[in-house]
Amino acid sequence: MSVLVAPSILSADFAALGDAIDAAQRGGADLIHVDVMDGHFVPNITMGPPVVKSIKRVAKVPLDVHLMITDPDKYIDAFADAGATMMSVHVEVLPHLHRTVHAIKALGVRAGVVLNPATPPVMLEDIAADVDYVLVMSVNPGFGGQTFIPRSESKVREVRELLDRAGNRAPVAIDGGIDQQNVAKVVSAGARIIVAGSAIFHTPDPERATRELKAAALAAAMSVPL
Ligand code: DX5
Ligand code: ZN
């Protein structure tokens, strides 16, 4: 699989989300990453199903919905109805992760699981065969514009190996502090879905920033075929 770029609209102007999505898509965005926060699991509040539904009307690419909420089981139906193509949930909040992953899949949605920076890859051991993707957080979730945590690079490698051992070629995604400077190293480590917010939307030209980030990611993937 090639590399997919997923601009995170958390760093876009919420009063002009349609324009932000258009620009990212013109730049070659493969997915739109939507950060859902509840002010409980993370110290920030963002958007819910009605906003996702509106985004769905204007987006031409699939929506990747990242649920940073304490009780995802309550809301997965609503986000599926709103138009999520992919949905990821945090292992830190789910005692019955296997049930949740299969509930997401039963809705026809690709199921991802997310690891916070302090959560070790071993937490995936018993779910590795079931997931459609794994998202490695390279910052503590809650805000855009934070600095990439260096340990995340080796973590991507370890998660890739763990999935391979489970016979699962599902992609590893990375989210947090990704930019033109560090994208090559995370792709070389095995990341195949690149989430980026401020490196795209906190620039004067998000279309161009998307295009350049994708070019850098694809170049890195070419040089280290997995
Ligand atoms: C962080 C979110 C990220 C965030 C990334 O809690 O999950 O998706 O938008 O933003 P940057 O790329 O600015 O770190
Ligand atoms: Zn995210």
Number of domains: 1
Low-confidence stretches: none
CATH topology: TIM Barrel
**N/C terminus separation:** 8 Å
Q: Give the structural class.
A: alpha/beta
The CATH superfamily name is Aldolase class I
The SSE order reads: EHEHEHEHEEHEHEHH
CATH hierarchy, class: Alpha Beta
How many strands in all?
A: 8
> Hetero groups bound?
D-xylitol-5-phosphate, zinc ion
If you average the pLDDT, what whole number results? 97
Number of helices: 8
Radius of gyration: 16 Å
Please give the share of residues in helix.
Answer: 25-40%
- Identify the CATH architecture: Alpha-Beta Barrel
Q: Any idea what the shape is?
A: globular
Strand order of the largest sheet: 1-8-7-6-5-4-3-2
**Strand content range:** 15-25%
Biggest sheet, open or closed, and with what strands and sense? Answer: 8 strands, parallel
Q: Could you walk me through the main structural features you see in this protein, from its secondary elements to its overall organization?
A:
- By secondary structure, the chain is an alpha/beta fold.
- It has a single domain, classed as TIM Barrel, CATH 3.20.20.70.
- It contains eight helices and eight strands.
- The protein has helices spanning 17-26, 49-58, 76-82, 97-106, 152-165, 183-189, 198-201, 206-223, and strands at 4-7, 32-37, 63-68, 86-90, 110-115, 133-137, 172-175, 191-196.
- Strands 1-8-7-6-5-4-3-2 form an eight-stranded parallel β-sheet.
- Helix 5 (152-165) links the parallel strand 6 and strand 7.
- Helix 2 (49-58) runs parallel beside helix 3 (76-82).
- The N and C termini lie close together (8 Å).
- Bound molecules: D-xylitol-5-phosphate (DX5) and zinc ion (ZN).
- Zinc ion (ZN) binds next to strand 2.
- Residues 8, 33, 35, 66, 175, 195 line the site of zinc ion (ZN).
